[in-house]
Write a structure and sequence with these properties.
This protein is α/β, with parallel strands linked by helices and 453 residues long. It folds into two domains: 253 residues, Periplasmic binding protein-like II (D-Maltodextrin-Binding Protein, domain 2, 3-Layer(aba) Sandwich); 179 residues, Periplasmic binding protein-like II (D-Maltodextrin-Binding Protein, domain 2, 3-Layer(aba) Sandwich). The chain has 17 helices and 18 strands. The strands form six sheets. The chain has a five-stranded mixed beta sheet with strand order 2-1-3-17-6.
Length: 453
C-alpha cells in the first residue's frame, strides 16, 4: 500500500517538475472535447498511463495508504473551498487523512464555504490567491483549465479516477484526453417524481399526461429552460456543443437542431405545451396539485413530503411523435475537486494525495450519508443504502441518456428561453412542418453565430 501511494506521489512530483520547466504547455489539451460520453458507457478500465508511477500502475484501493516518511513534505496551510453544507464533513475527512499520514501532518487545512457555482469565477479572477483544493461544477472545467487554475491529473492518480468512477463523471473531468480533476458526485440532472396513486405508467409521457388529466392533477416540466429543453432535442438525437481555443473563446460548434430529429423534438414540445394537464415549471416548492414533475435530487425531500406514501421516482419517460417513440434525454452534471498548481513540491504532493482521499469511495459514502450527495464512485454507487435511494436510482438510470453539460454562451440560455416562451404562447401552434423547420434553422444559425466558423 505504501508503494502505491509513493507511485502516486512521484507522479504528482513529475507534474510539478514539468510545470516548472514549461512542459505543461501542451497544445493538444487546449481544446475541450464535446464530452458526449454517457454515464452508462462501459468505460471503467484504467488508462495505461504510467507517468512517474514506476512499475506499479495500480492506484491505492481506498486512498488511505500511509505517506512515505522519507519525503520532506514541508509545512503550511492548505486552503480548501467546498459548499457550505460540506464544510464540516470535509474537515472530518481531512482530519482522518492527516491522522493516517503523519508524515504530511505539518499542514493544516483552512476550509472555507464557497459554492461550486462560485468557485470557478473566484479562481479565474485570482488564481494565486485562490484555494489550493476546490470543488466546482463540471461545466466550469474549460474556463479553469484555460486560466491555469488546475493541475493535470496523471499517472496512477489518473488511473484511480478512470477505474474508480462512472464513465460520465470521468468524461466530465476531461478536456480532450487529459483529466484535470477528481470526480466527486454524480447527482446533478433531472428525472421524474410522481404520485403513484395517479400515474400508472411512468415510462410513457402520453400515459402520464392522460393519468394526470383524469385525476385533475398537473404534469410539470420547464420547457422554456435551456437545461430541461434539451431533454427533447438530445433524446431525438440532436446535438448542440461548442469548442474553445486557448483563450477561452468559442471557435466552433456542432449543432443539428435544424433537422428531421429537431423537428420531431419541437413538435413534441408544442404538443406537451398544449395538453390540458401541462404546467410549465420544475420546482415542487411552487407546484400546485402536481401528479408528476421533472425535477432533480435537490427536491427529493419536498417530493417525499408532498407525495407521502405515494412518493415514487423513475427515469424520464418516452414521448411519441408521428408514431415514433423517443426516450427523453438531456443534460447531466457532476461536482469535481480540483488542485491548483503549486510552486512547492512538498505541498503539491500533499494536495494531490488529500484530494484523492477526499474523493475516494469512503469519502463519497460519507457525503451521501451526511449530505445526501450522490456518489460517482462505482463502489459507492453499489452500496445498499445508495441503491435504496429512489431519487438517485432514477437519476442513475436517466444518466444513460444524458450528456455532461459543457461550456455554452450566455446567449444560448436566453435563446432557449425565448424558444420555449414562444411555444407556451402558442406562436407555433398552426405552423406547417416547413415553417417549424425555418424556426429551427433560425435558432441553429443564431447558436452557430456565437462561435467563429
Amino acid at each position: 500500500m505504501k508503494k502505491k501511494l509513493l507511485a502516486m506521489l512521484l507522479s504528482a512530483a513529475m507534474v510539478l517538475s514539468l510545470a516548472a520547466c514549461g512542459g505543461g504547455d501542451d497544445k493538444k489539451n487546449d481544446t475541450p472535447s464535446d464530452n458526449n460520453t454517457q454515464q452508462g458507457a462501459d468505460n471503467n478500465t484504467p488508462a495505461d498511463d504510467n507517468q512517474g508511477g514506476g512499475d506499479d500502475t495500480t492506484p491505492a484501493d481506498d486512498g488511505q495508504a500511509s505517506a512515505p516518511a522519507d519525503i520532506d513534505y514541508g509545512s503550511g496551510v492548505i486552503t480548501i473551498w467546498v459548499a457550505e453544507a460540506a464544510v464540516e464533513v470535509t474537515q472530518k475527512l481531512a482530519d482522518e487523512f492527516f491522522a493516517a499520514n503523519p508524515a504530511m501532518a505539518g499542514y493544516t487545512v483552512d476550509i472555507q464555504p464557497t459554492g461550486e457555482g462560485d468557485a470557478a469565477g473566484n479562481m479565474i479572477t485570482d488564481v494565486e490567491g485562490g484555494a489550493d483544493i476546490f470543488g466546482f461544477a463540471q461545466d466550469q472545467l474549460g474556463r479553469l483549465v484555460l486560466a491555469g487554475a488546475l493541475t493535470p491529473i496523471t499517472g496512477d492518480y489518473a488511473s484511480f479516477v478512470e477505474s474508480e468512477n462512472a464513465a460520465g463523471s470521468v468524461a466530465g473531468a476531461k478536456m480532450g484526453d487529459q483529466i484535470y480533476a477528481f470526480p466527486m458526485t454524480a447527482d446533478n440532472g433531472y428525472f421524474l417524481y410522481y404520485d403513484k396513486s395517479v400515474v400508472t405508467d411512468p415510462s410513457s409521457l402520453d400515459k402520464i399526461l392522460e393519468d394526470c388529466a383524469a385525476a385533475g392533477k398537473s404534469f410539470y416540466m420547464e420547457i422554456n429552460s435551456g437545461w430541461y429543453q434539451t431533454a427533447f432535442f438530445f433524446g431525438a438525437g440532436c446535438e448542440l456543443t461548442y469548442e474553445s481555443d486557448s483563450s477561452g473563446a468559442l471557435i466552433s460548434s456542432n449543432i443539428t437542431y435544424a433537422s428531421e430529429n429537431g423537428l420531431k423534438a419541437l413538435k413534441a414540445i408544442i404538443a406537451l405545451a398544449n395538453h390540458s394537464a401541462f404546467v410549465n415549471g420544475s420546482s415542487l416548492s411552487s407546484a400546485t396539485n402536481p401528479g408528476a414533475i421533472v425535477d432533480g435530487t435537490w427536491d427529493s425531500g419536498a417530493a417525499k413530503d408532498l407525495f407521502g406514501d405515494n412518493y415514487a421516482c423513475a427515469k424520464l419517460p418516452t414521448y411519441t411523435v408521428d408514431g415514433e417513440e423517443i426516450q427523453l434525454g438531456g443534460f447531466c452534471g457532476f461536482k469535481l475537486l480540483g488542485v491548483k498548481p503549486q510552486t512547492e513540491q512538498g505541498k503539491m504532493l500533499v494536495c494531490m494525495a488529500l484530494a484523492q482521499y477526499l474523493t475516494n469511495a469512503d469519502a463519497q459514502l460519507t457525503r451521501f450519508t451526511e449530505l445526501g450527495w450522490g456518489p460517482c464512485n462505482i463502489t459507492a454507487q453499489a452500496d445498499s443504502a445508495v441503491q435504496a435511494d429512489e431519487a438517485l436510482s432514477a437519476l442513475g438510470a436517466q444518466f444513460a441518456y444524458m450528456i455532461p453539460q459543457g461550456q455554452y454562451p450566455d446567449a444560448y440560455w436566453q435563446d432557449a428561453t425565448s424558444l420555449g416562451d414562444d411555444v407556451i404562447a402558442g406562436t407555433y401552434n398552426n405552423m406547417s412542418d416547413e415553417e417549424l423547420m425555418k424556426v429551427l434553422e433560425d435558432f441553429q444559425a443564431l447558436q452557430q453565430s456565437y462561435a467563429a466558423q
